[in-house]
From TrEMBL:
Keyword Phosphoprotein: yes
Presence of keyword Phosphoprotein: yes
Originating organism: Corallococcus soli
Protein name: Response regulator
Entry-linked Pfam families: Response_reg
Keywords for this protein: Phosphoprotein
Lineage: Bacteria, Pseudomonadati, Myxococcota, Myxococcia, Myxococcales
Length: 134
């Protein structure tokens, strides 16, 4: 059962991402409204996929990607960046930091589902052990 962490400061956007991915069989979703909250969640629970915005009020998406890639237990966690920043510099920076895919808003449900399916099929069963960490 894929565990997905959806991080965006917009509740509407988080709900839209969840609605787009809900048809993915047996997925379970956790939502975070900031980069700091995302990092807290990532230290508490194992996830199979991280869907992340770049623009957030405290810790930005790039910094969250850098945190994930700096952790041995999280290094293989697939990350989809979903952002309004469609410029090439943002795309390059996100991918260089370690994002798996970069998508711009607006996106279609099919494109997000396809990206998630592709990454989940390639990923190891869990990026972390099932046990919570302290």
């Amino acid at each position: 059962m894929p565990e997905v962490l959806v991080v965006d400061d917009s509740k509407v956007m988080r709900e839209m991402v969840v609605a787009c991915l809900r048809p993915y069989p047996d997925s379970r979703f956790t939502q975070a409204s900031s980069g700091l909250e995302a990092i807290e969640q990532l230290t508490l629970k194992a996830y199979d996929l991280l869907v992340l915005d770049l623009n957030m009020p405290d810790i930005g998406g790039i910094e969250v990607v850098e945190f994930v890639r700096g952790q041995d237990q999280l290094r293989s966690l697939p990350i989809i960046i979903v952002t309004t920043r469609g410029d090439e510099a943002s795309r390059e920076r996100a991918l260089q930091a370690g994002a798996s895919l970069f998508m711009t808003k607006p996106f279609t449900p099919d494109s997000l589902q396809g990206a998630a399916r592709s990454l989940l099929e390639k990923a190891p069963a869990k990026a972390l052990d099932e046990a919570p960490r302290g």
